[in-house]
Predict the structure of uroporphyrinogen-III C-methyltransferase.
Amino acid sequence: MGGREFVTTDNGVFGRYRLSIQAKIYLVGAGPGDPDLLTVKAQRLIRSADTVVYDRLVSQEVLDLIPHSASRVYVGKVTGHHTLSQKEINALLVDLGRKRQRVVRLKGGDPFIFGRGGEEALALARNDIAFEVVPGITAAQACAAYAGIPLTHRGLARGVQFVSGHSKNNETLVLDQAALSDPEQTLVIYMGLANLSRIIRDLVEAGRPGDTPAAIVERGTTSNQRTVITTVDELQQAVEQHAITSPAMLIIGQVVSLAEELEWFMPWAKEMELKYA
């Protein structure tokens, strides 16, 4: 491996080390589901890919952009069932990087926000495979916007924290008590349905009032989006009553109270748009 340099990847170099120019892996954020929310660069790379490795949360509308000539490799994960383990996905990307000219690793949302993109990037870097990261709109930002919920708002929320509601290897979930208790901080929880009762209990024990507004946004930004507005006390009941399933985002904080006035997205209109496009 060559000496340390800070030069562009166009010269076959990434970060501090000289890397192979034989292939490149693009870790691309597919956004929350609506293909109109893809970045211009993401669209360009998807349309010109030789191989696309994609997750369960990548929408069909985004997958439809993949050229027929490209190979597709599905590596989706559901709680308790993984098509491939993360270690196997890392090895697959390294192997593809040594064989293909243009490989797109398509990940829902943003690769570096609860997407394990950092682990995949490290695997590539440590095997001298050149890569680029293409950010995507993360689900927390998009689901909140499409539900009419500003994550920060003067007088209601001076900060926001993104939290995973799922722990590694099914270990006991441990949440930051300071974040849970701060009434001026919006809390957005990814993958929170499986541990919902634990999350609610921790919120109450941390001092969040039971009447704190809460929202569940299921399949945000798509024609199947459902938004349920409730409170921390009634969150579990609301999920059960409306039969909410994954993927769903939990948003907790005073900003949720603005949703009634700021709601703008009409999923039925999106469905009609897709049907008659």
Remarks:
- The CA atoms of residues 1 and 18 lie 6 Å apart.
- The longest strand covers residues 24-29.
- The chain has two domains: 9-137, 140-262.
- Residues 140-262 form a domain with the Methyltransferase, Cobalt-precorrin-4 Transmethylase; Domain 2 fold (CATH 3.30.950.10).
